[in-house]
């Protein structure tokens, strides 16, 4: 068969499949802009200011509307009232998690934030129980926060009142509280391991917010076959994972099952 004819037939099948999927599910979804085959509503979103695009669409279709990212329908909740109604008033019905192919590939579907289904429910239940036993909502966690607040104040005093960008320092404080719960110990703000972790986390956050990653999460095959910033995201994720595994081994060597010290060895 002629390669050109084969390509045309393949594209035609994809377009027909896209149109069929959109029309078959359209009656069950909130209204929204008409999507194009395959690419959906990507052309109607300004990737440089997604928030403004969502706001403009909400003025036309209301606070709850449907966008197609590729051929995947996505329901958008815009505004405080819509989000509150879904996540607070109907929290149980909206307790599930969507799929993020980039995280699925990096974490193999594991973890608290981006896992799904029964695995997510079981992990969340265990994590909440463990954190409560470690003092979440009690004095012990409050003491950790107070300690870190004092360290933050001391770090700010080192600027001697001169102008500075506090973004990094303010980001270190909550990260250190989390580290004190997971690893038992906090890090000095100049600790090289801590600086490396913060750098990789910040870089991952920036990569996740890029238009390219949004495209990759829609067309997940790109993650396996195309070059791009997603590969740096996977490298950073692997580095952080290896660091946590090393800390876990250190904790196992001094494990006392009668005295849980942190989240790792609970």
Can you offer a commentary on this structure?
The protein has helices spanning 3-26, 50-61, 80-89, 101-107, 117-133, 139-157, 167-182, 192-208, 211-218, 222-225, 230-253; strands spanning 64-69, 72-77. The radius of gyration is 23 Å and the shape is globular. The N and C termini lie far apart (62 Å). A hairpin with a 2-residue loop joins β1 and β2. The chain folds into 2 domains: 3-95, no CATH class; 117-253, no CATH class. The chain is built from 11 helices and 2 strands. The protein has a two-stranded antiparallel sheet. The model has no long low-confidence stretch (mean pLDDT 80). The chain is mainly alpha-helical and 266 residues long. Helices cover 59% and strands 5% of the residues.
Quick tags:
single chain; 266 residues; mainly alpha; two-stranded antiparallel ribbon; 11 helices
Tell me about the largest β-sheet: 2 strands, antiparallel
- Distance between the terminal alpha carbons, to the nearest Å? 62 Å
Mean pLDDT: 80
Order of helices and strands: HHEEHHHHHHHHH
Residue share in β-strands: under 5%
| Strands ordered across the widest β-sheet | 1-2
Extended strand count: 2
What Rg do the Cα atoms give? 23 Å
Structural class: mainly alpha
Assembly type of the shown chains?
Answer: single chain
Q: Approximately how much helix is present in the residues? A: 55-70%
Q: Would you identify the regions where 5 or more consecutive residues have pLDDT less than 50?
A: none
- Count of separate structural domains: 2
């Amino acid at each position: 068969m002629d390669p050109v004819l084969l390509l045309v037939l393949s594209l035609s099948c994809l377009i027909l499949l896209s149109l069929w999927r959109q029309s078959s599910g359209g009656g069950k979804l909130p209204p929204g802009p008409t999507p194009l085959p395959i690419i959906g509503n990507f052309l109607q979103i300004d990737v440089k200011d997604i928030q403004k695009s969502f706001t403009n669409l909400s003025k036309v279709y209301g606070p709850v509307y449907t966008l197609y990212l590729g051929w995947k329908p996505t329901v958008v909740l815009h505004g405080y009232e819509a989000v509150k109604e879904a996540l607070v008033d109907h929290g149980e019905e909206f307790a599930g998690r969507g799929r993020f192919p980039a995280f699925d590939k990096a974490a193999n579907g594991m973890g608290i934030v981006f896992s799904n289904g029964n695995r997510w429910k079981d992990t969340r239940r265990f994590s909440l129980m463990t954190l409560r036993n470690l003092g979440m909502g009690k004095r012990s966690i409050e003491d950790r926060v107070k300690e870190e607040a004092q360290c933050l104040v001391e770090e700010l005093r080192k600027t001697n009142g001169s102008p500075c960008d506090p973004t990094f320092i303010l980001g270190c404080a909550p990260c250190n509280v989390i580290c004190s719960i997971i690893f038992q110990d906090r890090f000095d703000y100049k600790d090289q391991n801590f600086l490396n972790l913060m750098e990789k986390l910040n870089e991952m956050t920036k990569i996740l917010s890029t238009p390219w990653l949004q495209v990759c999460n829609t067309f997940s095959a790109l993650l396996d076959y195309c070059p791009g910033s997603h590969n740096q995201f996977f490298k950073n994720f692997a580095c952080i994972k290896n660091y946590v595994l090393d800390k876990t081994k250190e904790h196992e060597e001094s494990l006392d099952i009668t005295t849980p010290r942190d989240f790792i060895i609970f």
